[in-house]
Amino acid sequence: MASWAAERTITILIAWALLLPGAALAQRQGDIPRELEGVGVDEKLDAQVDLALSFRDETGATIRLAQLLDGKLPVVLTLNYAACPMLCGLQLNGLVDTVRACDYRPGREFRLVTVSIDPEERPERAAEKKATYIERLGIPEAAAGWNFLVGDEKAIRQLADEVGFRYRKVEATGEYAHAAVSIVLTPEGKVSRYLYGVAIPEKTLKFSLLEAAEGRIGSTMDQILLFCFHYDAEAGAYAPAARKLMSIGGALVLLLVGGLIFILWRRERRRRSESTALTTTA
User: What CA–CA distance (Å, rounded) separates 81 from 277?
Assistant: First the structure.
């Protein structure tokens, strides 16, 4: 009986993660499975997380959020737990695949912070998970930019509440019901963007980090590309901004026309100068 309940819970949680926008709509309509009551995401854009909150990292050292959100790099925050039977693994594997496809690197353009929602988990388990995902990522130096944190119930709940992450423990199975969402924070610790699901498009991650950093990371071309796109909340991704593209197109036309006029003016001036010189010589 317990095994059947566990399998049912896992199936429901995976469906919730893969179909989060639809599930959120169902939640508003009151038509959700019992296991998912009280579970979801309340978007709190621009909310400030408490930088004084303390956790322990994968080495067992006490670390405050202020040490990770120090005003330098944006942060991608995930709330998972090591004993999760499937959903957390799907989410973190998907995040690894996205980071691997992106030219932004943890510790260089942004930080990754994974906080366990299970207060029973210890740093040793966090260290095991970190080693697993760094190996999958295939970028050893990224280890310095990805922290796996564990903490007490109070700190975990406070952080989750501050970013609008609602989860609950399913007593029948001992597992946690939660959504799959990556939360992008500004370098100062304000909520900038919610990225849902277990597969985040590389462009969506990159543009979200650019926005959160407010121009402090990325190349000039990255900034130009971001200007040409806007975030589509319904699609959960970035799409071309027609008005901006038209503005850029118009500016390019003006530059081309202006450049052509300048070239023609220079040629005409040179021709007149040469004509005057010939007349003088004669």
Answer: 84
Contact indicator for 79, 155 with CB cutoff of 8 Å: no
Fold of 2-240: Glutaredoxin (3.40.30)
Element (H, E) at 77: strand 75-80
CB 157 within 8 A of CB 49: no
Cα-Cα-Cα-Cα dihedral sign, residues 231, 235, 238, 242: negative
DSSP summary character for residue 174: T
33 φ/ψ sector (left φ>0, alpha ψ -120 to 50, else beta): beta
Q: How far apart are CA 69 and CA 87, in angstroms?
A: 27
Give the SS3 label for residue 97. Answer: helix
pTM over cut 0.85:
no
Q: What residues does each domain of the chain span?
A: 2-240, 242-282
Rounded Cα gap, residues 155 and 134, in angstroms: 26
User: Which pLDDT tens digits describe the chain residue by residue (282 residues)?
Assistant: 445 555 555 555 555 555 454 444 444 445 566 667 789 999 999 999 999 999 999 999 999 999 999 999 999 999 999 999 889 999 999 999 999 999 999 999 999 999 999 999 999 999 999 999 999 999 999 999 999 999 999 999 999 999 999 999 988 888 999 999 999 999 999 999 999 989 899 989 998 998 888 855 444 444 444 445 555 555 556 566 544 444 444 545 455 656 667 676 677 677 766 666 656 555
> Contact, 145 vs 76, CB < 8 A?
no
